[in-house]
Amino acid sequence: MPFDYTLDFHHVDFRRQPELYRVGKGEQGVLLVEPYKSEILPHWRFRTPEVARESSEQIYGLFLAYLKAQDFVGADMARKFLQMGFTRARRYANHRGGKKYDGPVPDDKKGQSGAHGRAELPRSPEDPEKAAAAAIFKRKWDEAKLNPDYVQQMADFKARYGK
Predict the structure, then answer these.
(1) pLDDT in tens, 113-139
(2) All structural domains of the chain with their residue ranges
(3) Are 28 and 51 in contact (CB under 8 A)?
(4) CA end-to-end span of the chain, whole Å?
(5) From the DSSP assignment, how many helices (H) and strands (E) are in the chain?
(6) Which of 40, 33, 38 is nearest to 12 (CA)?
(7) Contact call for residues 119 and 39 (beta carbons, < 8 A)
């Protein structure tokens, strides 16, 4: 099922209403789904490899805690933050300043992934520090998405909610 951007994200508590959650594709909803966004976001950093290592380990720890609590939505959100650590660090590795597309995000597309008709800016010379930070997040993201408990909880979630 695609991610549902029509929900009132300011008022939905996905811990209390997990049936409203959609896994979606990639990082969809990573900055919308509460209370998880507020629990995970303060730990999300990728400025240097050292910062990325600490951040990815903290987020992976949250991922494991959510799994242990049988909180699939929380685990999936932590997985998305690990994925976003990789993709954002790669973006900064490829585009000095982190701006990949020309022009602002259209108001009706804010919070969603994609270019939304905007042209991609040319790449800068690769920033090795950001590339190393990206690799750190990539390893933790891979570890999370292949975790057998996560895989099982995702299957159970989809079977239970059809999402």
Answers:
(1) 666 676 665 566 777 899 999 999 999
(2) 39-99+123-163
(3) no
(4) 5
(5) 5, 0
(6) 33
(7) no
